[in-house]
Amino acid sequence: MTGVFHTAGVLDDGVLDGLTAERFATVFRPKVQAALNLHELTRGSEDLTAFVLFSSLTGTVGAPGQGNYAAANAFLDALAESRRAAGLPAVSLAWGPWAGSGMAADDGSEERMRQAGLPVMDPARATEALRLATLPAAAHGPASGGQAAALVVADVAWDRFLDGFTAARHSTLFDDLPEVAALRAARPTEPSASEKPDLKQQLAALSRADAERTLLDLVRTHAATVLGHGGVDAVPSDGAFKGLGFDSLTSVEFRNRLGAATGLTLPATLVFDHPSPHAVADYLSGLLIGGDLTEPAATEPAPFVRADDEPIAIVSMSCRFPGGVRGPEDLWRLVADGVDALGEFPAGRGWDTRSLYDPDPATPGSTYARQGGFLPDAGEFDADFFGISPREALAMDPQQRLLLETSWELFERAGIDSAALRGSRTGVFAGTNGQDYLDLLKDAPDGAEGYIGTGNAASVVSGRLSYAFGFEGPAMTVDTACSSALVALHLAAQALRQGECDLALAGGVTVMSTPSAFIEFSRQRGLAADGRCKAFAEAADGTGWGEGVGLLLLERLSDARRNGHEVLAVVSGSAINQDGASNGLTAPNGPAQQRVIRAALANAGLKPGDVDAVEAHGTGTALGDPIEAQALLATYGQERPAERPLWLGSVKSNIGHTQAAAGVAGVIKMVMALREGILPPTLHIDRPSTHVDWAAGAVELLTAARAWPERDEAPRRAGVSSFGISGTNAHVIVAQAPTTTPAEAVETAESVTPITAVPWLVSARSPEALRAQAERLREHVAGRDGLDPADVGWSLLSGRTAHEHQNVRSRA
Predict the structure, then answer these.
(1) Percentage above 70 pLDDT, the chain
(2) Cα–Cα distance between 395 and 442 in angstroms, integer?
């Protein structure tokens, strides 16, 4: 044997505090231990003329995140020197990146290396360099000393590499190289550090707006450089660093570059503490523009505000429910027109609908009901709009997806740019009653791992919204089963009154990814055979399942007026409690329901007679409905004249029992009814249930639509009830929005001067979405002759978020 070539190498990159002894061993074993073994086995060989070690440029100049790999390769260089000193043949070649199948190509970093000034080498040229590097030892013998023991073989673009290498710290490592000397000689002489003003002085000479823009450009420029992008256009200001492609290594490099550019000592956790270019720029602004170069006090809590008696304003609503309902107006048309929105099981969810149905309630794994209220587009989701990868979107429970979309719609309807709320004390209170989507992911395609946990965790149902929009108020997921949405609303109102947040999203969501709810309640004989909820009817024979999502945007009434937000209605009071030891774990409890109603009235400072109507839980079960009706008769049915009864209805008769979204469906229905002055009918009531003593109080069923009863100088008020199978009860009282006095009203814009054509701005995040938005706008205005083109144009301009793809249409 005349030659030995050691070419082994394994990578296990990571920042320094993450490089454990095991990770060092992973890299050292093929590099260090294998080289030592070859050295020991061949040191006595008289025929050996070549002992070649494949090292890396990393061992010579270092590389972020490769502390273990750099050390292993530095050992190879030292071993070659040691062998030469002992008169043994050796040469260690510190390679730069190779093209083709080199390690740089294997980990996808070829483009990044090129941007850093280390373009990959052509394998033919690299092989020729290898031949020349080993030639002296083979031709002249091991002790000739005609060639250095450790050599660097790399293609270096010095103009880029040198700038990057010295960006974080000054280095004289390359000062003796002729290429570096020539490069420096060709560059114009820059002012010395003492002559050139530092960044803080440069920013001080600018207006604050220009200074902040300069910092944002600086951050985006360095982020683009680290990521290997050609310019800052590839780095959106509000894009999350993780979504842009940052990992622990690029995060450190980014921190180092910014530290060198700003002269600040920045934390290693920079991109985690401030997760977007805009957030980093704001952080730097506080250090460089806001005063002394010291870190500001970590977000001191705002002064504690408590307003126990202040009403909570509902300033926006959004929803998706069966029957094609995609907003509150759709829901109102559905209930006002008395539409039954239930239908057959969905065909696109993989349910074996043929074998799923069995009329015998005792058949395991089947259901004797085959209709319900379903969302036809529950599986659709614009993941790219929210910066979510297709793999992550696939692993996400549809409930999270629907909440993201309805949250966006919630802000659009309020005329609030959600981007302006990033970093605000906005709270999220989301109701849920289970996540069965996980059952479908056992056969998920490769790549979904790592997203399944967060995609299906109940806690992330609310946390996802705070993360996506950058909210910093309280976020919690509430699961009290069918009362979840109202409990979430109650908690949100409390948080607003106690000053824990300034704005709050509250509501609930249920999507039935599997038919398990139908199967379970079939065994309990709790379903209506036709899938209809016949609330408080003699024909009531069980509940009918539905699904949906609904959200409310809440604000203290004084804040809503000050901010110029339209107040749709107010939450006058709310209460929650528990059944306690009722007659069975899932059985409702009448006295507990009476207590929660009285507590909500007391919280609102009202008497039973002050409330005109109640949107009941009203599931259509033979046990639950009589218990609820008796509780309403014992509370709202008393102390009121017979000619002004409490009117009772249930939206479940239209859309089914939408479970965790049921309470918010009732609130949206009643807010719309308050505004329209009409109490819509409850469907499927053949006659009032004979299991209820209706003579015990003044309560009547809404078997037909009625005008809302008018009372002198008193706002319309309605109660909404939800009772969970968990035993947690909730009752909320909503009221007509109070009339503002001229002094309280927000100043209106001057009247618009009529012109021949009004521009309508339409925008979206993709060309396809832009066309879809334009079509939706066309459908919306078609047939609405009463719309003022100027009003539409103003709403599109001031009430919608402007995206990168835009189109302007004119309307005369």
Answers:
(1) 88
(2) 11
Closest CA to 550 of 328, 308, 309, 260: 328
Q: What is the rounded CA–CA span in Å between residue 801 and residue 434?
A: 33
- Among 261-275, 541-555, 651-665, which stretch is predicted with the lowest mean pLDDT? 261-275
Lowest mean pLDDT, pick from 133-137, 393-397, 455-459, 655-659: 133-137
Question: How many whole angstroms separate alpha carbon 558 and alpha carbon 307?
Answer: 10
CB of 664 closer than 8 Å to CB of 433: no
Query: How many CB atoms are located within 10 Å of the residue 394 CB?
Result: 18
How would you class 765 by CB atoms within 10 Å of its CB: exposed for 0-12, middle for 13-18, buried for 19 or more? middle
Q: Tokens standing for 572?
A: 């006058």
pLDDT tens digits along 681-694: 999 999 999 999 99
**DSSP at 14:** B
Of 455-459, 616-620, 753-757, the least confident: 753-757
Backbone conformation region of residue 676, classed left if phi is above 0, alpha if psi is from -120 to 50, else beta: alpha
**Torsion from C-alpha of 608, 612, 616, 620, nearest 10 degrees:** 110
Cα(119)–Cα(97) distance, integer angstroms: 7
What residues have CB less than 8 Å from 116, skipping those under 6 apart? 160, 161, 164, 228
Which of 160-164, 278-282, 651-655 has the least mean pLDDT?
A: 160-164
| Range of weakest confidence among 122-126, 182-186, 796-800 | 796-800
Tokens representing 366?
Answer: 């089947």
Comparing 213-222, 229-238, 527-536, which segment has the lowest mean pLDDT?
229-238
Comparing CA positions, the residue from 338, 312, 314, 334 lying closest to residue 323 is: 334
**297 CB-contact burial (10 Å; exposed 0-12 / middle 13-18 / buried 19+):** exposed
The alpha-helical segments, DSSP class H, found in 187-245 are: 199-204, 208-227, 241-244
Query: 209 CB contacts (<8 Å, ≥6 apart)?
Result: none
Are the C-beta atoms of residues 491 and 413 closer than 8 Å to each other? no
Q: Where are the alpha helices (DSSP H) in 427-497?
A: 452-456, 458-469, 484-497
Calculate mean pLDDT across residues 117-136. Answer: 81
Please measure the distance between the N-terminal and C-terminal CA atoms of the chain and give it in whole angstroms: 91
CA distance 726 to 541: 21
| Nearest residue to 82 via CA among 43, 56, 139 | 43
With beta carbons less than 8 A apart as the criterion, state whether 617 and 486 touch: no
Closest of 451, 489, 774, 485 to residue 657, by C-alpha: 485
The predicted-structure confidence for 420-429, as pLDDT tens digits, reads as follows 898 899 999 9
The DSSP 8-state label assigned to residue 61 in this structure reads H
* Residue 253 CB partners (closer than 8 Å, separation 6+): 64, 168, 226
Task: Provide the b/e sequence for 660-678 (b: ≥16 CB within 10 Å).
Answer: bbbbbbbbbbbbbbbbeeb
What's the alpha-carbon Rg for the chain, to the nearest Å? 35
Nearest to 658 by CA among 532, 531, 528, 547: 547
**Helix or strand (DSSP H, E) at 509:** strand 503-510
pTM over 0.70: yes
